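Class, discuss our next protein.
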Amino acid sequence: MNTPSERVRGILEAALKLPPKERPAYVDRACGGDAPLRQRIVEALFTAQECATAIERTAPPPSPEETIVVAIPPAAPGEKSGDRIGRYKLLERRGEGGMGTVWMAEQSEPVRRMVALKIIKLGMDTKQVIARFEAERQALALMDHPNIAKVLDAGATDTGRPYFVMEFVSGEPITIYCDRQNLPTRERLNLFVQVCRAIQHAHQKGIIHRDIKPFNILVALQDGVPVPKVIDFGIAKATGGQQLTDKTLYTALEQFVGTPAYMSPEQAEMSGLDIDTRSDIYSLGVLLYELLTSKMPFDPKRLVQVGLDEIRRIIREEEPARPSTRISTLEAAEQTTVAKRRRSEPLKLIHQVRGDLDWIVMKCLEKGRTRRYETANGLAMDIQRHLNEEPVVARPPNAFYLFRKMARRHMLAFGAAGAVAVLLIMGLGISSWLYVREKEDRANEVRLYKALAPQLQELEQHTAELKKQQEEDKQLRLEMVCTLAGRSFTSKAQFSPVEKSFAVITRTGGVTILSTEGKQLHDLALPRDRVTAIAYAHDGRRLLVGTEDGNVCLWNPTTGASQTVFTNAGWEIGRLVWLANPERGVLAHNVDDKLTATNFSGLIFRVFDGQVLAKFSSFVRQDFQTLAASSDSRLLGVLEIPNRKRAGFLLDSESCEMKAELWDNEYPSGPLSIAIAPDNNTVAVGYAPNHLSLWDGAQQKELRLVNAHNNWVTSLAFSPDSKRLISGGGDSTARIWEVQTGKEIGRVRFEGESTYVNSVGFSPDGKLILAAAENDVIVVAKALR
């Protein structure tokens, strides 16, 4: 008595011998009333039909001069061009498989675009076929890769037949595209690597394709660049216990699933051996074989002529020829055609394929799957190694092979080394008969060197001295113009922006204007108030004066006139800055710890009437350390002590919005002084205990850092050309720095230990420097080269 498997095989082989139109009636008679048996026979017939069609498609593509005519079977009853399925209008039928028909359709909403719509065929709505159809839809939905066609939508027709909508790929099978475009081997390999990456993505999602072949890999142009797209996951299989559909999806042991010419031995065997991702590696090897040779490992004509059992035996037992061997055994005319499609010559093409590519392909086509590449990504990486002239994993390494690979990667260096070797050999040949003369020349050289040794030593010493002199030339030589001491001056002084004079606050609470030679020019003494802050206008003719009672006066030193422009009794004015255009001033208060978040300690006001334009309450909570403004007055530098933790900010003087925060946890004591270069590109920040940092204000990026002083960096100022910076410190010094290199180029030292230099500045022409220390000493010096 026949087993169920033998009965299915007998009915199937008999049906395949009949014309297609007579097969349904024969299957009905042979199966009788056994509906499950009939379902399995029908599915096997469609699978066999797909196999035969796929084998025929693997025939070599025509030459570029020939015309390809693709015959599409007549449309199945039920759908025709112009029909609508949901929001999709069918335009043109593009293909038909064992269980579904693919249409090019137009989506009307929510966006208008061209899509590919795959719908199950009439008469194929059996439980098993529907399960496979839904499995393909689920497999595509799981993946998101640029080289895999995307699922866009899914649904069912009015009659209940399922369909799904995919990204429309208007392209050619990869082998036909490569041959039609005459792509060289290297470009074919680059396309193949993209296919491997797509299959790797599917494997990572737990999907085995099981039907990798050229007609399931279409190449389309995207922005002029060829991009392969993997399609048709109709017989895909899930791994790791994952289910692609909640419907029953069962593949019988004797059911032949896949395309024979691209099928792995374990897939063709139809045994109980579980199929894993390495089955797809075999199919990729067949595809690579075809891309390299335009031939297949096994002759498609032979596979068409033999039965299924013989096909399985060939795949399981016979070893295909290596790709280079296959090309070399072709007839001369066919060899020329194959090479021409790769823009090469027969001998050169055989040389390109022989070696690494032979090993890579044959590793993919191993009968035992444990000897193949473990992953598609591993195959892609080996192809990339070949393209980069690196040793490939597929090939057993030996010393000569590794050396040859290294030589190809470094061809220029090895060529140069070879040329040097030739020259060395020639030199040795010539030197053999000049040996005596060469010894004499060497002796002469030794005598000459000994004779010139003192002169060479002297030259080296002179070079060192010259270099030292050049370094010294970079240093500024400072010549004292005047030194004022013991005259009850405070350490708050400021150069006039236009005249050779400066203003200084006295210990008695007034303001004195002195010339750069130390001559007293003008005085201001307020009757009831002590001056705590001063700021020159940009024209140098007026001076803002802040007091300890919170008042701001506008003083004209030339006329002696003064007027109060801002009154805020009770809060001491700690800092003042005069902005350029429009004429506005900035003030900061020194306040106590009782200041709440609803108050403020900094504001911008109109100089002539004291109208408040903006406050800093959103940033500042306690004392200001210092203020600075850019030359165009668009940036305002602020240092403060919020909650007793110092911080630095750059604000927009128009909106008071924060532009940057100058703070780094590397300096936990925080910033103490700030200055903005006239070119508005660089911000200098002085930190405690002794760091000086230069910032790119726009990028909020620290440019360089120097250990500036042996104590706190208390004051900073840029030269008018932004190339130099002067800093005052708590180590009794004022130091001048080169901004570009961060090197110290000049220094002024005050008497006494740890005397704080709290005011520094450059004259408008940059030739004079000003430094005022807390020990009542003010220095004006001229910078000389």
